[in-house]
């Protein structure tokens, strides 16, 4: 510690200063000394000039018999300032092995035996008076090494204002206003029973931008206790090893007492960073906080923000973090409030769902489902293109409102698409006009594989998520017979059916859908089989399906032709194996009939129709091969069964004046494939030709009665 003495007046010229200059205040009973190191000195009424030319500066070493010893840089002499037992000031005393006994001035002993001997402070000093003084204390000799060890264990790149994250994504000023307000209101309302706000959202929905914006607002409001931004590509923040030390470091920066307590905790257990996250949280965060006075706790920043927990590479690490947070909220008393954002990965949803260990403790915001960002995306795209126009001196009409709407529509409510498009157009070394044209072509599905790749970063995101999910799927059971990408595409391409409708013809086990999609919640929507509009597997972002359907973009993950052949062959094989008898409706003439089965058959046929129209260029073989297979088996028995079921379904709606969509699909498909089938298998082509001619008759208006139909 360094102690500066001031307000001392003397007229003695300090000509011969010894090399050793030590001394002490012997008693803490002086009215000008604090009774403990924690008490502050009284204010000084006199502030003379200080410094070596007016008064020496001494360094504090420690207590000695209730006194305070301080030292001058010279190692050979010492000085004592003291008071007697009656709190009266006594003369300073001098100690030195180089100077003889005092010869001038009285020697007044101190009330405490500070040093052996006791000589006058300044020989021949005159008019010396020490009525007031000022001192500053700095701790050097007892400095803890624990804090330095903690700093070394942190992840500087994970801070919200880290240099490594320069220019991070954040919300534009007039966007995301509603959700930002909801989050900030929750953080600042300390009466809310939940102390955890968990926000889940699809990949690219703007979670990190919201976290950055909230972090900055909390820092400005002086309520940000700590932040940690996980990042998959950074080894210092793609795991949980540095999470708790980084949080503890930021808390210590906010309060010196917490900092000292954290340092002591590390000194007491140097191996703390290798212990469980719960042990680290207790030692480095919870215990130091609990030792703060309640008044100090109320003034402490309390918002802890964690972004991208799903980017922690170890799933067990994600689980451990969630359990530590749950412990803090349910087993401990802490002033901290946590705001975590991530994709809705399986382990996270399990913790948040009903019955999960965070269900009662967390306030859950589902960003992609609860908030429509379309208007904000439109506003952002238009503003960024206008700003680019000003920077690059582009014509006012270099883009149109229709161009903006194309981008907004392609974004499907997800920010990442729009931001990626704008970033691509804004590349300084290229023409914005040409790049905007490329973006619009890609958005319309007219992208050329030889052209530039506006959405390369988006494709990389999709690739990483799919590869990770695929690895996790096979890691559970290496003997699994299902082709992950094949079955996933089957669910996505049959967008008129529920997963259970697909499972039956594809001969998939009942829980296949859950195991295939459990690690893809950031990309796909969970279907609701009780709601016709949402009963099929949907995607949050249209560009994800575009990615899967483009060989150039998906690369080795491209399986569309195989998936289409798998779907069509499964449907035809299943339909052909249905009972050959003509089914009857129970309400019509008292005959037996299962209407649900016919409805499913109709849906499956409609899906085949959709596939043939949307993917004809890529799916011609996918359609031809299953049709040949169906025609060749048992002399086309499958087509006979399909015909029987189809006719029965048409009779269920006698008021319809136009052919069913399924009939249209069959006719349209046969017209396309008949020439190709003829080249490959003339016998199969002849069977197909017969049914083609039969079903073409249905294209004319038909009249149906209660019990008759076209057979």
From TrEMBL:
Signal peptide: none annotated. Residues 104-114 have a biased composition (Polar residues). Residues 181-343 form the Nephrocystin 3-like N-terminal domain. Residues 94-119 are annotated as: Disordered. The keyword RNA-binding does not apply. Keywords: Repeat. It comes from the Eukaryota. InterPro entries: NPHP3-like_N (IPR056884), P-loop_NTPase (IPR027417). This is Nephrocystin 3-like N-terminal domain-containing protein. It comes from Ephemerocybe angulata.
């Amino acid at each position: 510690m360094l102690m500066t003495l001031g307000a001392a007046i003397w007229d003695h010229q300090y000509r011969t200063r010894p090399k050793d200059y030590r001394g002490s205040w012997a008693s803490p009973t002086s009215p000008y000394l604090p009774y403990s190191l924690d008490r502050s000195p009284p204010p000084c009424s006199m502030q003379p000039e200080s410094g070596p030319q007016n008064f020496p500066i001494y360094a504090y070493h420690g207590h000695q018999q209730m006194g305070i010893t301080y030292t001058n840089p010279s190692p050979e002499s010492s000085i004592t300032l003291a008071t007697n037992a009656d709190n009266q000031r006594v003369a300073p005393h001098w100690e030195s092995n180089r100077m003889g006994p005092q010869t001038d001035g009285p020697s007044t002993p101190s009330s405490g035996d500070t040093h052996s001997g006791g000589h006058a402070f300044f020989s021949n000093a005159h008019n010396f008076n020490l009525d007031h003084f000022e001192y500053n204390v700095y701790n050097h000799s007892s400095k803890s090494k624990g804090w330095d060890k903690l700093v070394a264990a942190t992840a500087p790149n994970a801070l919200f204002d880290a240099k490594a994250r320069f220019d991070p994504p954040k919300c534009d000023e007039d966007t995301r206003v509603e959700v930002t307000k909801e989050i900030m209101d929750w953080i600042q309302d300390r009466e809310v029973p939940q102390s955890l706000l968990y926000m889940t959202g699809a990949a690219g929905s703007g979670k990190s931008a919201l976290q950055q914006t909230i972090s900055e607002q909390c820092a400005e409001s002086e309520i940000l206790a700590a932040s940690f931004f996980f990042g998959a590509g950074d080894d210092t923040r793609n795991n949980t090893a540095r999470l708790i030390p980084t949080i503890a470091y930021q808390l210590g920066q906010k309060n010196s007492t917490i900092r000292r307590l954290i340092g002591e905790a590390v000194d007491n257990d140097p191996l703390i960073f290798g212990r469980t996250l719960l042990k680290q949280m207790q030692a480095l965060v919870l215990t130091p906080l609990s030792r703060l006075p309640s008044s100090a706790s109320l003034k402490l920043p309390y918002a802890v923000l964690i972004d991208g927990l799903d980017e922690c590479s170890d799933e067990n690490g994600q689980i451990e973090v969630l359990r530590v947070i749950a412990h803090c909220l349910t087993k401990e008393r802490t002033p901290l409030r946590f705001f975590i954002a991530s994709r809705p990965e399986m382990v996270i949803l399990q913790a948040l769902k009903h019955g999960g260990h965070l269900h009662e403790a967390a306030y859950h915001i589902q960003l992609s489902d609860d908030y429509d960002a379309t208007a904000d995306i439109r506003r952002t795209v238009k503003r960024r293109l206008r700003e680019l126009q000003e920077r690059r001196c582009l014509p006012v009409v270099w883009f149109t409102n229709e161009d903006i709407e194309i981008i907004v529509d392609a974004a499907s409510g997800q920010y990442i698409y729009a931001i990626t498009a704008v970033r691509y157009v804004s590349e300084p070394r290229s023409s914005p006009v040409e790049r905007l044209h490329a973006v619009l072509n890609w958005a319309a599905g007219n992208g050329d594989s030889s052209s530039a790749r506006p959405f390369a970063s988006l494709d990389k995101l999709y690739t990483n998520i799919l590869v990770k999910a695929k690895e996790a799927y096979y890691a559970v059971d290496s003997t699994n017979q299902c082709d992950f990408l094949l079955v996933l595409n089957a669910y996505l391409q049959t967008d008129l059916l529920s997963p259970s409708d697909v499972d039956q013809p594809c001969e998939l086990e009942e829980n296949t859908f859950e195991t295939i999609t459990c690690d893809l919640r950031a990309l796909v929507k969970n279907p609701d089989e009780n709601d016709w509009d949402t009963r099929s597997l949907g995607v949050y972002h249209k560009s994800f399906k575009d990615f899967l359907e483009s060989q150039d973009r998906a690369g080795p993950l491209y399986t569309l032709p195989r998936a289409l052949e798998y779907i069509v062959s499964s449907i035809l094989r299943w339909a052909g194996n249905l009972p050959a008898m003509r089914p009857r409706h129970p309400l019509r003439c008292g005959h037996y009939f299962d209407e649900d089965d016919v409805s499913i058959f109709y849906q499956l046929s409609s899906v085949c129709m959709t596939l043939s129209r949307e993917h004809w260029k890529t799916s011609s073989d996918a359609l031809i091969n299953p049709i040949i297979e169906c025609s060749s088996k048992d002399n086309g028995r499958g087509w006979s069964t399909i015909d029987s079921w189809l006719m029965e379904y048409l009779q269920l709606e006698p008021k319809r004046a136009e052919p069913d969509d399924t009939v249209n699909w069959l006719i349209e498909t046969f017209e396309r494939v008949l020439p190709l089938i003829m080249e490959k298998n003339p016998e199969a082509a002849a069977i197909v030709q017969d049914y083609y001619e039969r079903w073409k008759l249905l294209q004319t208006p038909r009249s149906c009665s209660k019990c008759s139909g076209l057979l």
